[in-house]
User: Which sequence fits this backbone?
């Protein structure tokens, strides 16, 4: 088994004080830093939206953050503006170790959001991560980061579909948890046989 740690979106905007703060988001940073030594590869993902991105409520007339809208690819939650390319909010948490092998950016196409590290929300546009892992012979993934119920869960479910062995280390994740989204995500991951720690 060649094992990778996939660190999802540990960025300033998802930590307390940020534009889309996840409660306790910063608490996981030392836990993740500590875990990094135990893997053959460490990969960071970075949510990376152009300004005016279609996942922002401000891009839709009459919509407020956390409402939903219909996109060509299905229902999309509308978010506060966050992780805009090149802004300080899009930067990694300042204490997160940066000595990773790869940083993969996602959410940079204006008209489509991307929760998963593998595919955008249309479930078909690839980010390239699958090819990278395959080329390196990596078949075993541990996922940590933000947020459990969105980007971490979508990444874990896609990884199972792509036939990786997948573990989500819940002690190194934090959730947004809106309208029962955390319970739904946990249930979906259990049903898909993601190993939950
Ligand atoms: C995320 C909402 C919007 C995440 C990213 O990282 O879970 N959530 N963009
Ligand atoms: Zn985003």
Assistant:
């Amino acid at each position: 088994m060649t094992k990778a740690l996939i660190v999802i979106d540990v960025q300033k905007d998802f930590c307390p004080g940020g534009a889309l703060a996840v409660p306790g988001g910063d608490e996981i940073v030392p836990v993740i830093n500590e875990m990094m030594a135990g893997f053959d590869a460490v990969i960071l993902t970075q949510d990376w939206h152009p300004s005016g991105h279609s996942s922002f409520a401000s891009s839709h007339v009459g919509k407020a953050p956390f409402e939903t809208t219909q996109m060509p690819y299905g229902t999309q939650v509308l978010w506060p503006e966050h992780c805009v390319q090149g802004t300080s909010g899009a930067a990694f948490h300042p204490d997160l170790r940066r000595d990773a092998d790869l940083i993969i950016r996602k959410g940079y196409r204006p008209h489509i959001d991307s929760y998963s590290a593998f595919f955008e929300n249309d479930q078909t546009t690839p980010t390239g991560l699958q090819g990278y892992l395959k080329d390196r012979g990596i078949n075993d993934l541990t996922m940590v980061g933000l947020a459990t119920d969105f980007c971490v869960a979508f990444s874990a479910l896609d990884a199972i579909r792509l036939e990786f062995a997948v573990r989500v280390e819940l002690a190194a994740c934090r959730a947004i948890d809106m309208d029962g989204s955390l319970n739904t995500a946990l249930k979906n991951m259990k049903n898909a046989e993601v190993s939950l720690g």
About this structure: The longest helix spans residues 148-161. The first strand starts at residue 3 and ends at 8. The chain has a mean pLDDT of 97.
